[in-house]
DNA sequence: TATAATTTTTAGTCTTGTCTAAAAAACAAT
DNA sequence: ATTGTTTTTTAGACAAGACTAAAAATTATA
């Protein structure tokens, strides 16, 4: 429990605050309405009580709106801050893959640290140096300087039905286990694939990639973003 | 005052700890013998009492040796850790200047943040990407993976006497005021210069740079490293 | 609608890293 | 050798961010 003693006006956010904002940003997109305390705690691997505490302080700072028991929502100021952190994360990922030749399954944790480096000038120069990329190595869009993301109409592979074709444009899950699994099957951003069959009872699929055909579980299909063609 | 309750064995150092180690490393080189509490406090802009506290905890962790009232000295483990931080700092500075085209007076603060990113793989790849540089943009040597620095026989400009010549190989002071001052006089790493005259009573000098001749204060001369030729 | 289960919040504690004020040690000077 | 000054250390407090245990609010269930 924290007792508020002084009001302060600093526009810099701590590492912990930035992580909370980022998490709330992501959770907001998945589920409409306020983001619940437990959902945040789950995603951040902390306890709900810690979340309540922080969320109340963030509300005081004006970056989220929050009513007790009703969950949290980002204000426009909060959303912009969160998008800024995500922008940095994704730009650094591009740097790590394009320039330092890291593999796409190795960059997440390092980018988690780099996203908290504070320097507007740095990120602008990095952006330019990388050729103003629109997507990170996992196909996620990079927010612009104002925090805007152009949304693309992508679907989960699991939403496609038999005979539909498309291009892999991103992954939802970014764990190295999953990414390495995709590598073994030669699936990466830009890979063309088509659905040969879909099983109703377990959601599994048979897909074609190049001249290979193989089985894909529901879980896999729910973590691959496709742009249908 | 901190009470020690549990012994722990983690080999990761916090941001604050890394900064203390780095500071002690630098202070050790300037003055022989243990580094005093006040010296650390001065350099880090903290209070001596905070230093005592931290220094005692660092001693428990085995990275410095410390006797009450006698100052602190890095152990080999501590020195290696400190050199690792400095290695990262300087490699990032090279990146910022060489790749992102920052000016040498703009990189210090950003590198202060980047030096705390934890990833061995990252720094090895960065090193390679930059062409395994030996010196940072200010002429300071970059420690190798094991924390060893090859020492060069450089002198301060203030140590030279009339008619001696040399090449600027580094700066001691790295404030942007000083670096911008040097820029105005076209002095940078690699600049050849010669001492035309030296005034005894105030340590000022007349030097030649290219076809320009100008006056230089004692303070300036004490912050420029020269390799005599 | 009353009760049970779940979610969320409060209260209190802990750790790291900081601070101030005061005590103690070390150094300087008569 | 005693006194004074400086340096260093101790003691106690505070803030951020986390935790546990318990209380309160909400939601689900019968």
What does this structure look like?
Chain A has 229 residues and is an alpha+beta fold. Chain A contains eight helices and eight strands. Chain A has helices at residues 15-30, 37-44, 48-60, 76-99, 108-114, 120-129, 176-184, 218-221, and strands at 64-66, 72-74, 155-156, 165-171, 192-198, 205-209, 212-216, 224-228. In chain A, the strands form two sheets. Chain A has a six-stranded antiparallel beta sheet. In chain A, strands 1-2 form a two-stranded antiparallel ribbon. Chain A is globular and about 60 Å long. The mean pLDDT of chain A is 93. The A-B interface holds A 96, 99-102, 106, 109-110, 113-114, 117-119, 121-122, 125-126, 129 and B 96, 99-102, 106, 109-110, 113-114, 117-119, 121-122, 125-126, 129. The structure holds a DNA duplex (30 and 30 nucleotides).
> In what range is the share of β-strand residues of chain A?
15-25%
Question: Order of strands side by side in the largest beta sheet of chain A?
Answer: 3-8-4-5-6-7
**Which chains share the greatest interface?**
A-B, 18 and 18 residues
Instruction: Return Rg of chain A in Å.
Output: 20 Å
| Elements of chain A, N to C (H/E) | HHHEEHHHEEHEEEHE
Tally of alpha and pi helices of chain A: 8
N- to C-terminal distance of chain A:
53 Å
- Structural classification of chain A: alpha+beta
Which of globular, elongated, flat, extended, rod-shaped describes the shape of chain A?
globular
- Give the beta-strand count of chain A: 8
Q: What oligomeric state is this?
A: homodimer
Helix content of chain A: 25-40%
The biggest sheet of chain A, with number of strands, parallel, antiparallel or mixed sense and barrel status, is: 6 strands, antiparallel
Which residue ranges of chain A are poorly predicted, with pLDDT under 50 across at least 5 consecutive positions?
none
Mean pLDDT of chain A: 93
């Amino acid at each position: 429990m924290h007792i508020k003693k002084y009001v302060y006006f600093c526009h810099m956010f701590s590492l912990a605050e930035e992580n909370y904002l980022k998490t709330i940003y992501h959770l907001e997109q998945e589920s409409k309405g306020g983001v619940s305390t437990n959902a945040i705690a789950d995603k951040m691997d902390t306890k709900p009580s810690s979340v309540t505490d922080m969320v109340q302080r963030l509300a005081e700072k004006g970056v989220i709106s929050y009513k007790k028991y009703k969950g949290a929502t980002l204000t426009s100021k909060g959303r912009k801050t969160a998008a800024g952190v995500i922008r940095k994360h994704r730009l650094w990922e591009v740097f790590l893959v394009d320039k330092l030749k890291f593999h796409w399954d190795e960059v997440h944790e390092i980018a988690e640290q780099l996203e908290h480096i504070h320097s507007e000038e740095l990120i602008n120069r990095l952006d330019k140096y990388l050729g103003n990329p629109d997507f990170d190595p996992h196909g996620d869009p990079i927010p612009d300087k104002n925090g805007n993301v152009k949304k693309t109409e992508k679907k989960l592979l699991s939403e496609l039905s038999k005979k539909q074709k498309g291009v892999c444009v991103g992954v939802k899950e970014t764990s190295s286990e999953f990414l390495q699994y995709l590598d073994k099957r030669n699936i990466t951003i830009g890979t063309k694939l088509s659905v040969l069959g879909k099983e109703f009872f377990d959601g599994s699929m048979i897909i074609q990639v190049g001249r290979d055909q193989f089985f894909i579980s529901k879980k896999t299909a729910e973590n691959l973003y496709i742009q249908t063609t």
